[in-house]
Specification:
α1 packs parallel to α2 and α2 packs parallel to α3. The protein has a single domain, classed as Alpha-Beta Barrel (TIM Barrel), CATH 3.20.20.190. 22% of the residues lie in helices and 15% in strands. It contains three helices and five strands. With 154 residues, the chain is α/β, with parallel strands linked by helices. Keywords: Hydrolase, Lipid degradation, Lipid metabolism. One of its GO terms (biological process) is phosphatidylinositol-mediated signaling. It is an enzyme of class 3 (hydrolase). It catalyses: a 1,2-diacyl-sn-glycero-3-phospho-(1D-myo-inositol-4,5-bisphosphate) + H2O = 1D-myo-inositol 1,4,5-trisphosphate + a 1,2-diacyl-sn-glycerol + H(+). One of its GO terms (cellular component) is cytoplasm.
Length: 154
């Protein structure tokens, strides 16, 4: 592969909304969206391939532990904690630009609190907790400003 293809040649100082973002849908699935396995390592794979927005479908799991899977299907379930740890490990290995967690939330308040706890514990300072107003998208930070940060959208 051409090493020049790994370099960024665009102006990365514009507001985040000015960019197309490589996104993954049902990131956790290793195959079809009805019967396949949910696997945390799928996050490692897409992040290393350049994806910057990953989907995490969260549901109430047993013993107060939120799980990730495709709801109302026969896909297997994985622990949210394992997904977050995998994302944390692989988010910035090949790319420093921000990673967006697109969380589809189907959890009770109790398990939402557990998700918030894991986000803070696992990502630490990487978690961007600044409150951004979407009223004026020109005020959004740039990809350059957000290097090394994990953003959460719900």
């Amino acid at each position: 592969s051409n090493p020049l293809h790994r370099q960024v040649h665009q102006d990365m100082q514009q507001p985040l909304c000015h960019y197309f973002i490589a996104s993954s849908h049902n990131t956790y699935l290793s195959g079809d969206q009805l019967l396949s396995q949910s696997r945390a390592d799928m996050y490692a794979r897409v992040l290393q391939a350049g994806c910057r927005c990953v989907e995490v479908d969260c549901w109430d799991g047993p013993d107060g532990e939120p799980v990730v899977h495709h709801g109302y299907t026969l896909t297997s379930k994985i622990l949210f904690r394992d997904v977050a740890e995998t994302i944390n490990k692989y988010a910035f290995i090949k790319n420093e630009f921000p990673v967006i967690l697109s969380i589809e939330n189907h959890c009770s308040i109790q398990q939402q609190k557990k998700i918030a706890q894991y986000l803070k514990e696992i990502f630490g300072d990487k978690l961007d907790l600044s409150s951004v107003s979407t009223a004026d998208p020109r005020q959004l930070p740039s990809p350059q400003d957000l290097k090394g940060k994990i953003l959460v959208k719900v």
